[in-house]
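Exercise 7 asks you to align residues with tokens for two separate proteins.
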Amino acid sequence: GFCPGGSRRNLDWVRTALDLGPGVREADLLLLADAQTSGGLLLVGEVPGGTVIGRTIPRAGADSEIRLR
């Protein structure tokens, strides 16, 4: 499929700060680095001492985790 050059540049910029699970595909990464998405992706993080407003539960046996260092 087609992938805009901006998405590839975004991914190149952030790639060294990612820890990837063994099931992460290049297509998954390109989706997260999409240069055309305007706030449409959900990213979940934890702030120590922050208010808990919901919970996310990883799928059992999931090997497609992506962590930003």
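Second protein for Exercise 7:
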Amino acid sequence: MKNLAVKQNRSVQERLLKTMTAIAQAEAGKTVLAVSHAGALSQFLLALGLEKKMTFFPSNCCVLEFHYEADQFDLVRFIDTLEEKIINL
């Protein structure tokens, strides 16, 4: 990720992916809000293999919007509340 100095932590990534997948499957067809800090968000993005597509740095207070379908997360929007910008992906 651009300007992202985050050490990959495979164990954290696996736990986040497992948990988020379980939530998405249990709440299929619903809108779900999951709240976390920037470090966990960064690890989740790394777990999804999105680091090469990222042009932003997830910070605390940001919003990442995902769609989940066919066992896959799709990042569709990044909202940076600190910089007051929205990036549709």
